[in-house]
Write a structure and sequence with these properties.
Number of strands of chain B: 3
Largest interface: A-B, 88 and 79 residues
Largest sheet of chain B: 2 strands, antiparallel
Shape of chain B: extended
Structural class of chain B: mainly alpha
Shape of chain A: globular
Number of strands of chain A: 25
Radius of gyration of chain B: 23 Å
Strand content of chain A: 25-35%
Strand order of the largest sheet of chain B: 1-2
Structural class of chain A: alpha+beta
Oligomer: heterodimer
Strand order of the largest sheet of chain A: 6-5-14-9-10
Strand content of chain B: under 5%
Number of helices of chain A: 7
Radius of gyration of chain A: 24 Å
Distance between the termini of chain B: 23 Å
């Protein structure tokens, strides 16, 4: 398989395009408006065609559904299995919102095809009025729109266990995505069905082939939980739970149950497969944490990053994303010398609770070696730890919740490589 | 079980339940605020809504049969376990017919997609998983509750035909998996009463989350 275009050194690509446009465009002056495709390096994917001068002929017609420029080909990393994951290309994104079609995927029994007219949400157990809602019913409640990230608790496992120089932002940290969600507060549904005082936990169940189930403290339901049907202004994507998904802001991805069809109120956790054999954290003292749902503060630089090659000395932004499952990120610091000194970065736009925020620090590369790191601080005062700190308290074999400081080693020739050994 | 029950209760008690911290809607103007909780967001909070303490009255009441069709959960006390029974020998035959194509002949799994189920490798005993990522977790050396095996097999297995097993078959497969992991005897017959009494070897190792934010790294 050829390498995806985002992994080609940018120097090569840009050089080719500029060179080809100059030669071919010049040669064809006076004939039909020329279309230019770049000459290809061996093994490189074909470059799209484009006119030498787009001001000299009319462009394309309007379309029913827009598509990306043929020059932009961000892609997830599907593995061709119905159980497994596919990661968000963080290095291709700008701002904080993850396009719906690039939101990472993690499924345990494939993506179900669900007819929204037949889909139901049943709420039962310790409630005064067991109720089955249609999608129309759910949409008639007063809706709210909130921006929150979802991060898989396995995000960063490879970078933690085996930090290798050829990890991209996508491969190191791509199991996180940030979305504007629309739905109904779970508190509204709780009031509608009359959740009884004795209820302390509820079970959320999906309509996929494994009928995914997770136990959730009722307190989270009263707090900021949502039942969402929309993602970035349109219905949820099937991979994200169409037509209905539980959203528990700041909590590990798996518990945000997709294809939501049932909520059962009870008095104890059900100890499902996904909260016992999976998504528990072995610790060096011979115990394992369970129900460790809140995600610790974390950040990652998305540019510069492998496989970029810095082409010129001088100013450039060091930019990336930061988030915390416990509230707002209050500070992101950047180091260019492997953590010897830290500088406060700008947060671009308001830092919203339990949402990605983009940071930026302007850096004047002198052409020497450098090691670029970022660390986030959240509103509880938690500071993103080094890998060494995490190894001490969690061990190399711990299975979930990886948030070490990571970064990028810049060589004097401009090559950039992943550096996870902080 | 006791440790988790206590931890869970403490966890729940630590959270505010139903108590308004801040209203997400400004009651005077109807404007959204930046509050993060919906604890006080009742039917009186939305502009034009039915009012405090009232309901929207959407949806319908499910029948007992509708609830029963979906509610197959079996919790850790096994209270919801259905009638039926199965032997280890029956489960061994079922395993080879319906499970081995993914989880392998001896339950060692097929990495990375199909997890291991069976194994009591002495090197992986003692719950030292945090120190060595190569140690393979199995039902016998990791899972804290036997009821989880029954619930999950009935819910999601076999992968290519979930929901196709009878309760007797689920009991038999659960019996086989527990016996192969040396949790119950190889001549055991499993039914609701017996399964409720099965204690998993490492159940006592699971502890509640002790991270709460703040400066300490845990």
């Amino acid at each position: 398989m050829s390498r995806p275009p985002d992994e080609l050194p940018s120097l090569t690509r840009r050089g080719l395009l500029a060179g080809a446009a100059g030669v071919v465009g010049g040669a064809l002056v006076g004939s039909l408006p020329p279309m230019v495709g770049a000459q290809l390096a061996p093994g490189a994917p074909p470059r799209p065609q484009a006119p030498a001068d787009p001001t000299k002929l009319p462009g394309g017609a309007t379309t029913a559904v827009g598509s990306r420029s043929p020059f932009e080909t961000p892609a997830r990393t599907p593995i061709g299995e119905t159980t497994g994951n596919s990661l968000t290309p963080l290095q291709n994104l700008t701002g904080t919102v993850t396009p719906a079609d690039l939101h990472f995927e993690r499924h345990h029994a494939g993506v179900p095809t669900i007819d929204p007219e037949r889909h139901r949400l049943m709420v039962h157990g310790l409630v005064d009025r067991p109720t089955t809602f249609s999608l129309d019913d759910i949409r008639r409640f007063p809706q709210v729109t909130r921006t929150h990230f979802i991060e898989c608790s396995g995000n960063g496992r490879a970078a933690y266990r085996e930090p290798k120089p050829d990890l991209t932002p996508q491969k190191a940290s791509g199991l996180t995505a940030n979305t504007e969600w629309t739905g109904v507060p779970l508190a509204t549904l709780f009031r509608e069905v009359g959740v009884r005082r004795g209820a302390t936990w509820f079970l959320a169940e999906g309509a996929d082939a494994c009928r995914m189930t997770r136990s959730v403290p009722v307190a989270k339901g009263w707090d900021d939980a949502l039942v969402v049907w929309a993602q970035n202004g349109e219905p949820l994507r099937p991979e994200q739970g169409y037509p209905l998904r539980l959203l528990l802001p700041g909590w590990e991805g798996n518990i945000n149950v997709k294809w939501l069809r049932r909520l059962e109120l009870g008095t104890h956790p059900w100890m499902t497969r996904w909260e016992t054999s999976k998504y528990t954290d072995p610790l060096p003292n011979g115990t394992a944490r369970m129900f460790s749902m809140e995600l610790d503060a974390k950040s990652v630089i998305t540019s510069p990053a492998y496989p970029e090659v810095l082409e010129a000395k001088g100013w450039r932004p060091i930019t990336g994303l930061a988030w915390s499952g416990r509230g707002r990120v209050t500070k992101v610091e950047v180091s260019t010398d492997a953590g010897d000194t830290w500088h406060q970065a700008d947060l671009l736009g308001p830092s919203q609770p339990k949402a990605h925020v983009r940071f930026q620090y302007m850096w004047n590369w002198s052409g020497g070696e450098a090691c670029l790191l970022s660390r986030a601080t959240d509103e509880t005062g938690y500071v993103q730890p080094t890998r060494r700190q995490l190894l001490d308290v969690r061990g190399i074999g711990t299975d979930f919740h990886f948030n070490p400081i990571v970064g990028w080693r810049v060589q004097s020739d401009g090559r950039v490589e992943f550096d996870g050994e902080t | 079980m006791r440790r988790i029950s206590l931890g869970a209760a403490a966890f729940v008690a630590a959270c505010t339940r139903g108590e308004p911290a801040r209203a997400p809607i400004d009651s005077a103007t109807g404007a959204m605020t930046t509050a993060t909780t919906f604890a006080s967001y009742d039917a009186g909070a939305a502009a034009g809504g039915p009012g405090v303490g009232r309901r929207y009255e959407f949806g319908h009441t499910p029948t007992r049969a509708e609830v029963a069709a979906w509610n197959t959960d079996v919790g850790p006390d096994g209270r919801e376990l259905p009638p039926g029974r199965g032997t280890v020998a029956q489960g061994a035959a079922l395993y080879q017919a319906k499970c081995a194509m993914c989880h392998n002949r001896n339950g060692e799994g097929m990495s990375p997609v199909y997890p291991a189920l069976i194994g009591r490798d002495p090197k992986a005993e003692g719950f030292h998983f945090a120190s060595d990522p190569r140690l393979v977790k199995t039902i016998g050396n990791y899972w804290p509750y036997a009821t989880t095996v029954f619930d999950y097999v009935r819910r999601a297995m076999p992968y290519n035909a979930p929901g196709s097993l009878s309760n007797d078959q689920v009991y038999a497969l659960t019996a086989f998996l527990l016996a192969a992991n040396r949790v119950i005897p190889s001549d055991a017959t499993l039914d609701a009463k017996v399964l409720r009494t099965v204690k998993m070897p490492y159940a006592g190792r699971f502890v509640p989350d002790d991270r709460h934010g703040g400066p300490e790294v845990r």
